[in-house]
Amino acid sequence: QVQLVQSGAEVKKPGSSVKVSCKASGGTFRTYDISWVRQAPGQGLEWMGGMIPIFGTTDLAQRFQDRVTITTDESTSTAYMELSSLRSEDTAVYYCARALPNFFDSWGQGTLVTVSS
Amino acid sequence: DIQMTQSPSSLSSSVGDRVTITCRASETISIYLNWYQQKPGKAPNLLIYAASSLQSGVPSRFSGSGSGTDFTLTISSLQPEDFATYYCQQSYGTPYTFGQGTKLEIK
């Protein structure tokens, strides 16, 4: 079973960037898709994008194309999601999840990002 | 983008009840439909994948059915730990999209 452990909560100013990490243990990191899903307070789930380390390809939802960067470090089995130009509407819990590839079977614990001046 | 619509948005039921939640896709998605359970402050947990396949470790009281555009999640006999929010998700194509959620509450 894969375990995903995310970095801690962040408080950011509008216009700044945040980088959330997701460290995997178990399984073969380089072969599976890591996706990022966010959930605004009291709201539903929103897929932001994903990456397959072995291919080095990233697939992003169109609304995040110009603000999200997803990277991986195979040497540490860690995935990263950077969101730039933060605004208050980006306040949410951000989850990483493993896709197999058509369903998310393992999830990180979530990282709360608060955007506030 | 494929829109996913769940109904009802909320539901009050009692322990032992049989509950059905429906999910409709805005276009055909074959069987690329997954169900998740989420409890407050926790990450979602996969219950059903490919419309009707039970994820390992998930109790058999959970079942899924459907194909094309219409899907259902059924809980045959509600247990206290089942009160949570349930989401459907299509994996037919990106961007993957989720339903708005169904909150299952204790009557």
Could you please describe the fold and organization of this structure?
The complex is a heterodimer of chains A (117) and B (107). With 117 residues, chain A is mostly beta strands. Chain A is 0% helix and 53% strand. Chain A has no helices and eleven strands. In chain A, strand 4 (33-39) and strand 5 (46-52) form a beta hairpin. The mean pLDDT of chain A is 94. Chain B is mainly beta. In chain B, 0% of the residues lie in helices and 50% in strands. In chain B, the strands form two sheets. In chain B, strands 2, 4, 5, 6, 9, 10 and 11 form a seven-stranded mixed beta sheet that branches. The model of chain B has no long low-confidence stretch (mean pLDDT 97).
Largest interface: A-B, 21 and 22 residues
Helix content of chain B: under 10%
Structural class of chain B: mainly beta
Number of helical regions of chain A = 0
- The average pLDDT score of chain A comes to 94
* Main sheet characteristics of chain A: 7 strands, mixed
- Report the mean per-residue pLDDT of chain B as an integer: 97
Number of strands of chain B: 11
Rg for CA atoms of chain B: 13 Å
Inertia-based shape of chain A: globular
Report the order of strands and helices of chain B.
Answer: EEEEEEEEEEE
Structural class of chain A: mainly beta
DSSP E strands of chain A, number:
11
Any key phrases for this structure?
A: 117 residues; mainly beta; seven-stranded mixed beta sheet; four-stranded antiparallel beta sheet; 11 strands; 0% helix; globular; B: mainly beta
Task: Draw up the topology in text.
The complex is a heterodimer of chains A (117) and B (107).
Chain A lengths: L2 E4 L3 E3 L5 E8 L7 E7 L6 E7 L4 E4 L7 E6 L4 E6 L8 E8 L4 E4 L3 E5 L2
Parallel strand pairs in A: 2-11
Antiparallel strand pairs in A: 1-3, 3-8, 4-5, 4-9, 5-6, 7-8, 9-10, 9-11
Chain B lengths: L3 E4 L2 E4 L5 E7 L7 E6 L6 E5 L3 E2 L7 E6 L2 E6 L9 E6 L6 E2 L3 E5 L1
Parallel strand pairs in B: 2-11
Antiparallel strand pairs in B: 1-3, 3-8, 4-5, 4-9, 5-6, 7-8, 9-10, 9-11
